[in-house]
C-alpha cells in the first residue's frame, strides 16, 4: 500500500531553491553589467561572476529535474510587500510557501558567496542558529 505524503523538508528546500536561484542569476547578470562599465579591467571579475552563474544555472536545472521526479510543480509565484509567495502542488497536495524579504536577502547572499568560492562556514542555518531539531 502506498501512502501520499504532504511536502517534506527536502521538498520545501527544492521549492525554496527554485525561487531563490533565478534571483541569484539575475543579481549576477546585473552585477556583471555594472562591473563591465565601471571597472578599468573587468575581465577577471566578469570571469568569476560567469563561472558562478554557470554553476547556479546547473543547480537550477538539477532542482527542476528533482522537482519533476518528486512530483512538485510551482504553479503560481507572487511578489508581495513582505516577500515571495509560491503556490505549488506536491504529490497531489496544494501547498503554499512564503519567503520573507529578509530571509530571501540573507539566503541569496549566502548562496552567492558560495557560488563565488567564498567561505560560508561562519554562517549557520536557521535550525543550527536556534537549535531546532
Task: Walk me through what this model shows.
The chain has 133 residues and is an alpha+beta fold. The protein has one domain. It is 58% helix and 18% strand. It has 4 helices and 3 strands, in the order H-H-E-E-E-H-H. The radius of gyration is 17 Å and the shape is elongated.
Note the main attributes of this structure.
133 residues, alpha+beta, 3 strands, YhjD-like
User: Which consecutive residue ranges, at least 5 long each, have pLDDT under 50?
Assistant: none
Structural class: alpha+beta
Give the strand line-up of the largest sheet.
Answer: 1-2-3
* Tally of helical segments: 4
Residue share in β-strands: 15-25%
N-to-C SSE series? HHEEEHH
Quick structural gist:
With 133 residues, the protein is α+β, with helices and mostly antiparallel strands. 58% of the residues lie in helices and 18% in strands. The chain has one domain.
Write the layout of secondary structure elements.
Elements: H1 9-38, H2 43-70, E1 72-79, E2 83-90, E3 93-100, H3 101-115, H4 126-129
Antiparallel strand pairs: 1-2, 2-3
Helix pairs in contact: 1-2, 1-3
